[in-house]
Amino acid sequence: MVNSIPLFVVIPLGCAFILPVIGRRWERAGDLFANLVTVTLLGLAIWSVRFIRETTVYHVGGWGAVNGIPIGIYLVRDGLSIFMLVVVNLIAFVATLYSINYMEHFTDKTKYYTLFMLMLAGMNGVILTGDFFNLYVFMEIAAIASYALVAFGTEADELEAAFKYQVMGSVGSGFILLGIILLYSYTGTLNMADVGRVILDKGTSNLVWFVNVLFIVGFGLKAAVVPFHMWLPDAHPSAPAPISAMLSGVLIESIGVYPLTRIMYNVIGFDGVLSNILIVLAIISMMIGGLLALWQWDYKRLLAYSSISQVGYILLGIGLGTPLGLLGALFHLFNHSAFKGLLFLDSGSIVYSVGTRDLREMGELDRRMPITSKTNLVAAMSIAGVPPFNGFWSKLIIIIACIQAGRYGVAGWAILGSILTFAYILKAERYAFYGKAGRDLADVKESPPFMCVALIILAVICVVAGLMLLPNVRETILFPVVNTLTSGTEYIWRVLR
Amino acid sequence: MIHYLLGILLFVIGLYGVLVKRNLFKIIIGLIIMEYATFLLFALVGFREHGTAPIQPGVAGKVFVDPLPQALVLTAIVIGLGTTALIAGLAVRIYEKYGTLDIRKIKKLKG
After folding, report:
1. B59 is in which domain, residue-wise?
2. What are the pLDDT digits (tens) for A12-52?
3. What's the mean per-residue pLDDT of chain B?
4. Ramachandran region of residue A117, left (φ > 0), alpha (ψ -120 to 50) or beta?
5. Do B35 and A170 count as a contact with CB atoms less than 8 A apart?
6. Contact B111 A233 (CB under 8 A)
C-alpha cells in the first residue's frame, strides 16, 4: 500500500489545522482528536511493519522520475523509517494519553494539542522524506513547534530555556541548510538517493568533507551531542512533562540522530574517519552527561543530562558501524524512548501531585504514589541495565560489539558509563521514593487514571521489549532494519529503481 | 568563487553576533544575518553567467539561471519569518519577566 505513506504527515497536519477552528467552542475536542490521531498513527505504523523488508517510494503530487532523474519530492519507506515511525508514534500515543489529565492545570489545551500535532507531523516527515530540502522543512516544522512547546508555561525560566533552545536550534538549522546548499552546488540535485549516486560517480572531494562536518555540527546540535549540549538541560525540564518525554524520548533522535545516520550510511557513505569522530563524540557525551547528572538535585534536570549520556550510547553503536553495533544502537534507541519517556512522565506525576522537582523535597513517595513509584522503578532498572529489563540487553550488545570490533578501550568507557548511569538513577530513586520526606507529604495522592494508564503501558513495554531479541522475532523486526544501514549506498538503487 | 566566500563570510559574521553579543535582540539580528547569508548563497549557487530568466518559451539552447534554488529560497524565507517572529515574541516576554535584555542578567537556570 503506497498510499498509506503520506498519511503519517497528512493526518497530524490536518488535525493541527482543524483543532484551533473547532476547539474554540468545544474544549474537549483536543483530547478526543489528538488521541484519535495518535492511536490511528500508531496502528498504521505497526501495520506497516509487515513491509519492513521492502523499500516503497511515494512520489508527492505524482511527480516521478524523468529519464531516470527524480524531479519531485520522494517519500521513502524502508526498514529504518518504519522502525522510527513505530518508536515516534508509540511515544506520541502515550504522551497524548497522559496529557488528558496532566494538561488540566495549563490554560489553553487546544493550542497545546495543535503544537503537539505540528511537531508530530514534522517528525514523521523527517523520518519518511527522501529529499534534502524537504528534510530541512520538516525539521523546522518539528523544531519551531518544540520551541513554542518548551515556552508553553510562559514563566520566567521556561521563556529563558525556550530562548536558549531556539538560538541553538536555529544555529544548528543554519549549519544544516548551508550543508544542503553546498551539497546541491556539488551534485545539482536534492533527492537523497540521486545525491548519493552523483557522489558515487564523481567521487568525494574536500567539499563533501566540509558538508560532513557541517552536518555533524548541525545534527549534533539538534541531538545535543556533548560539545553542543548546553541547551538541552534547560529546555527539556522546562517543558510540560509529556513534551519532555517527547523531546528527550524521540525528538532528539528523530531530528538529530536519525538524519545523521541516514545521510552518513545511505547517502554519503560511511568510512573510518567518520566512525572515529562519532565514537569520540559518543564517549564524551556518555561521560560528561553522566557526570553532570550525578550533581543534579532537580529530578527533571537529572533526567535531561541522562538523555545526553544515553544518546552517547546510541551514537557509539552507530559509530562502530558493525552489524552488531548498529543492532545495539537501534535497539537502544527504542529502549531509550521507552524508559526515558516513562521516567519523564513519572517526574510529571510527581510534579502534578507533590508540586516540586527538587529531589530533596520528595521522599516516601513509594507509599503515597504506588503506581508512579513502581513504574519509575521499572524504568530506573531499565536505564541502569539490570538484567531482565530492556536497557540491559541493548547496552550489553553495544559493549559486546565494541569488544568484537577490537576496541577494548571504548568498551571500557561504555562500561564506566553504565556504572555512572546506575549511580545517578539510584540517587534519584533513593531520594524521591524511599528516603525520608523533606517536608510534610501527607496529603499527596496518586495521579488521575489516564496518567496511570500511560505509565503502565510504557512500563509493560520496558519489561517485554527484551523479547525482541528472541530468535525469529529479531529476524523479522530488528535484522531488516539493521540491513537497511549495513547495505549502505545500495539505498540509492532501491529508491531510484 | 569569491562570491561564495563572501556568502560564507556573512554567515560567519552572523555566527559571531550570536556567540558574542549580550543583548537579546542583537543575538536575534545575528541569527537573521546567518539565515540570510545561507539564502544568498543558495541563490548564488543557481546563478549562471549571462543566464536569462527560466520562463521564456521556445528559446532552446540558451543559458538559463537555475530556477530551483530561487523557489527553495522563497520557502526558506517563509520558514525564517516564522522562527524570527517566534523568537522576537519570546524576547519581548522575557523582557516583561526580567526587565532586562542583557543575557548576563537572565540566568535563573544553571548547573
Report:
1. 2-98
2. 999 999 998 888 888 788 888 999 999 999 999 999 988 88
3. 86
4. alpha
5. yes
6. yes
Looking at the 3D structure of chain B, how many domains does it have?
A: 1
Q: How many CB atoms lie within 10 A of CB A230?
A: 14
User: Per the structure block, which three cell numbers stand in for A171?
Assistant: 544555529
Q: Do A171 and B109 touch (CB under 8 A)?
A: no
Confidence class for position A282, pLDDT limits 50, 70, 90: very high
Measure the CA–CA gap between A202 and A206, rounded to whole angstroms: 12
Across the A:B interface, residue pairs with CB atoms under 8 Å apart total: 93
Output the domain CATH number for residue B40: 1.10.287.3510
Is the separation of the CB atoms in A13 and A117 below 8 Å?
Answer: yes
Q: What DSSP line would sit under A440-487, residue for residue?
A: --TT--PPPHHHHHHHHHHHHHHHHGGGGGSTTHHHHTHHHHHHHHHT
Q: Is A158 part of the contact surface with chain B (CB cutoff 8 Å)?
A: no
Q: What are the residues facing A129 on neighbouring strands?
A: A75
Q: Is residue B24 part of a domain?
A: yes
Nearest-neighbour CA in chain A from B90: distance (Å): 6
* Residue of A137, A178, A236 best to disrupt the B interface, most CBs of B under 10 A: A178
What is the grid cell recorded at A416?
564506566
Give the global pTM.
0.93
| B98 at interface of A, judged by CB pairs closer than 8 A | yes
Q: Does B108 touch chain A (CB under 8 A)?
A: yes
Domain count, chain A: 1
Residue of A nearest to B82 (CA): A144
